């Protein structure tokens, strides 16, 4: 198999439909690539339909949703329902992080609601969130063999 290399597992990174911020998505992409994964970054303002379509097409090892605008709890519950409704995505690890609400209050209840909606982990906007996220991503096994890619 000369000329063929194994590509690391794919992680899909996305903003929510209502969130136009990009710096968080670039940061996440660089962090996840540093951990050895291939990243597909869909960018900001991603419609739910496009997110589902790309997840189906790519079969990512992890789906990472980021929110900076404070509507993560609303958009996240809707997205989780859409992704979990697809049989081929029902077991795909799904995480969300960032600013989950706009009130500045404790996001514990929002995090519980997101977990109940189908997220495997919620990373609230806190000092330890990046380290916790790194550990989570590193604990996710690849979904089958790594993809073959031209060397």
Helix tally equals 5
Q: Output the strand order for the largest sheet.
A: 3-2-4-5-6
- What's the β-strand tally? 7
How much of the residues is beta strand, in percent?
15-25%
Question: SSE string, helix = H, strand = E?
Answer: EEHEHEHEHEHE
Radius of gyration: 15 Å
Helix content: 25-40%
The pLDDT mean sits at 88
Biggest beta sheet summary: 5 strands, parallel
Low-confidence stretches: 144-151
Beginning-to-end CA distance, first to last residue: 10 Å
What is the molecular shape?
globular
Oligomer: single chain
Would you summarize the structure shown here?
The protein is of the alpha/beta class and about 150 residues long.
Q: Can you tag this structure with a few keywords?
A:
22% strand, 151 residues, alpha/beta, two-stranded antiparallel sheet, disordered C terminus, single chain, 5-stranded parallel sheet, globular
Give an account of the 3D structure:
It contains five helices and seven strands; from the N terminus they run E-E-H-E-H-E-H-E-H-E-H-E. Helix 2 (48-58) crosses helix 3 (72-84) and helix 3 runs parallel beside helix 4. The termini are close together. It has helices spanning 23-34, 48-58, 72-84, 108-117, 129-139; strands at 4-7, 10-15, 38-41, 62-67, 94-98, 121-124, 147-150. It is an alpha/beta fold. Strands 3-2-4-5-6 form a five-stranded parallel beta sheet, with helices on both faces. The protein has a two-stranded antiparallel ribbon with strand order 1-7. Mean pLDDT is 88; it is low at 144-151.
